[in-house]
Amino acid sequence: MGNICWVASYPKSGNTWVRAFIENYLQDPPRPVDINDLFRFSTAESQAGRYERYVGEGRKLSELEMEEVCAIRPLVQADIAREASGTRFVKTHNFLGEFGGYPLHSSAVTSGAIYVVRNPLDVAISLANYFDYSIDDAIEFMSQDMTGTPNEPWHVPQLISSWSVHVQSWTGRGESSVLVLRYEDLLGNALKTFRKVESFLGARKNPARLKKAVRFSSFEQLKQQERKEGFVEKHENANAFFRRGRQGQWRDSLSDEQVQRIVDQHREQMQRFKYIPGD
Asked: For 112, which of 84, 140, 149, 177 could close a Cys bridge (C-beta 3.0–4.6 Å)?
């Protein structure tokens, strides 16, 4: 039986980028891993097909209440660990907590987590573009403690919560089993930041392999692949999954009032990660 290392983030914060690096590093292929085939060492916890076997006869997964889905979650996660020969890297946008008395991430099969945090000022822009929201709607989405995704044909609901609750839940305990990365550091120095991931994986330092994996999982490489072949994880309302991938886009898109609203809502966590803009 294997175990799960969570690749966790708030939506539109670099989760797929990190998973692409892990796949390219561990597979060490001669050419970049296909973004539509990031499943050799990783998977997504919310895939509906994993839950259907636990739905009672005569019922549909889409009909289950949230508490019923959460009751199944530990069973699905045990299945993922059981199927793995070692560590399986599992994507999640759930906050680290519980719902209805059931943990959203089973400690019984968890070995650790990689958490990616991104400036909420930029997250708001990316969310608005991705879900076809107004910016004000995206800001509201990020402020709600019970924010989540709906029960969809291909994915069970995810309990995301607010940006602040999400970040605090994963990073506030200071556990050595959780590697925290800033999206902005991935952009500014991918080699140095992904070296932390290499070390966290327990891999011996291998500069050539690291550089190749960073190159094969670059934002431009991922974007190019999506343009050619599409991407199975793209939301139906989005024009593209990989859009711009840069920091500071909020400066051209948010009003002063919108910036202040985000800062007021998330000040404590923004201060922790040096995201509050100067006057």
From this structure: 177
